[in-house]
Amino acid sequence: MRSNVAWLSCLQLLCAMSTLTAFPLTPPLDLDVTPRTTVLFNELWGCRRFGGSAQNYSTLLLEEEPGLLYVGARGALYALQASDIASSSDTIDWEAPEAQKKLCLNKGKDNKTECFNHIRFLQRFNSTHLYTCGTHAFSPLCAYIDSREFKMSSVFEEGRERCPYDPAKGYTGLLIDGQMYTASQYEFWSSPDIRRNSPIPTLRTEEAPTRWLYEADFVESALVKESVNSSVGDDDKIYFFFTEKSQEHSLYSSYSRVARVARVCKSDRGGLLTLQKKWTSFLKARLVCSLPDYEFHFNVLRSIFVLEGPRTEDTMLYGIFGLEWKNVKASAICRYSIKDVQQVFEGPYMENPEDSGTKVTEYMGKVPDPRPGS
């Protein structure tokens, strides 16, 4: 895991368009947009609904074997029966205290939306416990939950390095082998970055705001187990998906924001000198979701779903993309294979020369040995 330069992979990922909505141009495209299934509006009244009173229940953890759906909401956590979410549920109330809400309000935050404890992280820690983090009225805290009794520990951990202060900031996180990997803009004036929070060594991306990430808005992360039959031991990778400001001098420079995928090695131990406590395996590439014949690019990533295959190379990524272009409103679903993504990260690079401002250009020199990101 050694490298003295952070690199940007320049070979763009192409995708297969599978769904398109609200496309405004003519002539019409010859795309099959037949829905897989159709549900009449009247039939929705018969759907089972979660009856909790909490708001902003957007943090979900589904565990298929016990048939449970854990829900992180504003000021509460729930354990629901996945087969019938309308049935009675176990509940943990986790509100921010009034004193903390007052401090939040004194910081100029909104006491109707922001000065609450929004649950942002909820993952399985081990066979008996979950781990959760909340914004806690702009003073993040984390805690363990005994999943057998669905009770929260009375001991809390500082969460400012693990959870964003702002409930509206893009955020993603994973617990892998007892280590926490997160990506967000954490504190008030910090730049977005990707971190391994514990245990030592802690790692993060470059602190300079435009060197590795440029106002990134994170949406998802995923572990891809590449160690099977690997000759180098632990070769598992962690992928992060986000939208950020464009830095390229390219055909698509008219788009102010672009979708990205970044990758780090789980076994990364950090580097020396300027790379102390920094990732040495960090790479990123553009996710292109487009209609090439029309030079039409869906540049904002909304969501990613990772479908694991029987083998690592069979894993597929499905992304939901939106469009930021004039007054056009459109969306698309694009599909990528992890094999193609891996090939991109083995391809040519782009670099950020010191005298180029914030723009990156294609690297024309000899690829260093060891290869960046390896």
Automatic annotation (TrEMBL):
Sema domain mapped to chain residues: 36-374
Q: What biological processes does GO assign it?
A: axon guidance; neural crest cell migration; positive regulation of cell migration; semaphorin-plexin signaling pathway
Q: Gene3D superfamilies from the xrefs? A: YVTN repeat-like/Quinoprotein amine dehydrogenase
State the Pfam families in the record: Sema
Which terms in the Gene Ontology molecular function aspect does this entry carry? chemorepellent activity; semaphorin receptor binding
Q: Which InterPro entries does this chain map to? A: Semap_dom (IPR001627), Semap_dom_sf (IPR036352), Semaphorin (IPR027231), WD40/YVTN_repeat-like_dom_sf (IPR015943)
**What PROSITE patterns does this protein map onto?**
SEMA
Please give the SMART domains that the UniProt record associates with this protein: Sema (SM00630)
Map out region (Disordered) in residue numbers.
Answer: 352-374
**Record's GO cellular component, any one?**
plasma membrane
UniProt entry keywords in alphabetical sequence: Glycoprotein, Signal
| Signal peptide range | 1-22
Report the PANTHER family cross-referenced here.
SEMAPHORIN, SEMAPHORIN-4G
What's the protein here called?
Semaphorin-4G-like
